[in-house]
């Protein structure tokens, strides 16, 4: 039997609002505490919501939150710097939701609005600085001198989670992937529609992705190898006009539209993301009445295309566990359900990052290997290789027991 009636959710990005909605469905009253003084919806670039993420939202009756703001991605096309196509395959089997490309600010706003519409309260300007974690409950202390108390606390405060550090002083810090990221969007890409396909180019000096909608609008991103781990704040110290000049130089010798797209981008439309990071493993997911969810527990680099979707899955699974078990057993069951899956995806993304940052010799071997693989493997079968990621489904009505096998 559960012992949780109230929850504090730290973080109002992606995992936080979804966790609050899932907890509400489980009969637990949750309040979200966000460090930003206002909405965080102006932060971040683009990301994809995979079928498994949409299925997790569907459990909450919230799948349309993504489809309302998303651009469908029906296939992926991989190219090399000479413009040669290395591979093309569908993003998901036909019986699953179509992958959606969304802009992170719009997703933040949409999830916050959905949570508010369900009666979930969010308090802004609440930066967590301390915890009192005892057997009677947990109290969160905020930088403005206020505090809040509940039965449990859910740390959904991202890759640099304060909650993670408060429950484990030796918690790992984010690992730099040797890539920094930029992006942009425009109402006129100057290119024909890609008909639902997202193109990815392994350039000579950087990785480039883009998609064009039927009305010629679209978006693009760059993963630029860099030995120096520049944060977003450090990147913003360099004028956007200078970054665009650097990117034009980076793609000057590559075939394909990367150079033209960058040339069409206005400095004010450049999206600066900064260093791409991950956390390979977090030893401590929970302590006492505190538990981590989303990037606080399992931060994968953007190369996985799964960060937001995994956060959504974990938020729903955590709520199921707290619905059916006392908090201590619920947290253990939650970790048993999630750790193996998320860390496998984090490791796969790390290998993808290595391909993106490949040197001249490694690029040749990579391209040859991809071409050989695609000659041997049917594109539909290639898509099936991702089935274990995309076809993850949560049975909300199934009871959670204390003895679980990792999914």
Number of strands: 19
Apparent shape: globular
Q: Give the DSSP E fraction (strand runs of 2 or more residues).
A: 25-35%
Oligomer: single chain
**Biggest sheet architecture:** 7 strands, mixed
Strand order of the largest sheet: 6-5-14-15-16-13-17
Q: Compute the gyration radius: what is it? A: 21 Å
Write the layout of secondary structure elements.
Elements: E1 6-10, H1 15-25, E2 29-34, E3 46-49, H2 51-59, H3 64-67, E4 71-73, E5 75-80, E6 85-90, E7 99-103, H4 104-117, E8 122-124, E9 128-134, E10 137-142, E11 147-150, E12 152-155, H5 162-167, E13 175-186, E14 197-202, E15 207-212, E16 218-225, H6 232-236, H7 240-250, H8 258-264, E17 270-278, E18 286-287, E19 290-292, H9 295-298, H10 307-324, H11 327-356, H12 360-376, H13 379-384, H14 387-390
Parallel strand pairs: 1-2, 1-12, 2-8, 5-14, 12-19
Antiparallel strand pairs: 3-7, 4-7, 5-6, 9-10, 10-11, 13-16, 13-17, 14-15, 15-16, 18-19
């Amino acid at each position: 039997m559960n012992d949780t009636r109230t929850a504090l959710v730290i973080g109002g990005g992606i995992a936080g609002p979804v966790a609050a909605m899932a907890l509400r469905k489980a009969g637990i009253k949750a309040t979200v505490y966000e460090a930003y003084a206002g909405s965080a919806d102006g932060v971040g670039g683009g990301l994809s919501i995979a079928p498994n993420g949409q299925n997790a939202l569907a459990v909450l009756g919230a799948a349309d939150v993504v489809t309302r703001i998303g651009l469908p991605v029906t296939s992926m096309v991989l190219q090399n710097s000479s413009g040669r196509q290395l591979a093309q395959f569908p993003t998901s089997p036909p019986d699953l939701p179509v992958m959606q490309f969304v802009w992170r600010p719009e997703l933040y706003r949409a999830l916050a609005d959905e949570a508010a519409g369900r009666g979930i309260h969010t308090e802004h300007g609440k930066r967590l600085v301390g915890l009192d974690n005892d057997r009677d409950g947990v109290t969160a202390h905020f930088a403005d001198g206020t505090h809040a108390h509940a039965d449990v606390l859910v740390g959904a405060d991202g890759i640099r989670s304060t909650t993670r550090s408060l429950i484990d002083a030796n918690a790992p810090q984010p690992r730099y992937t040797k890539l920094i990221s930029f992006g942009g969007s425009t109402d006129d890409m100057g290119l024909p529609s890609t008909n639902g396909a997202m193109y990815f180019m392994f350039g000579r000096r950087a990785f480039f992705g883009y998609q064009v909608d039927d009305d010629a609008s679209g978006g693009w991103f760059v993963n630029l190898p860099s030995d120096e781990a520049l944060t977003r704040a450090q990147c913003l110290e360099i004028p956007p006009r200078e970054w665009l000049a650097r990117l034009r130089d980076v793609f000057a010798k590559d075939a394909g539209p990367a150079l033209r797209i960058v040339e069409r981008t206005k400095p004010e439309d450049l999206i600066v993301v900064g260093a791409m990071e991950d956390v390979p493993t977090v030893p401590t997911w929970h302590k006492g009445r505190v538990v981590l969810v989303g990037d606080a527990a399992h931060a994968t680099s953007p190369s996985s295309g799964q960060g937001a979707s995994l956060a959504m899955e974990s938020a729903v699974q955590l709520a199921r566990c707290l619905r059916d078990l006392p908090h201590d057993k619920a947290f253990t069951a939650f970790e048993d359900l999630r750790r193996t899956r998320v860390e496998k995806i984090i490791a796969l993304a790390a290998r993808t990052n290595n391909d993106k940052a490949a040197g001249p010799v490694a690029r040749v071997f990579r391209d040859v290997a991809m071409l050989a693989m695609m000659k041997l493997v049917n594109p539909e079968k290639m898509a099936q290789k991702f089935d274990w990621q995309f076809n993850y489904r949560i049975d909300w009505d199934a009871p959670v027991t204390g003895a679980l096998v990792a999914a």
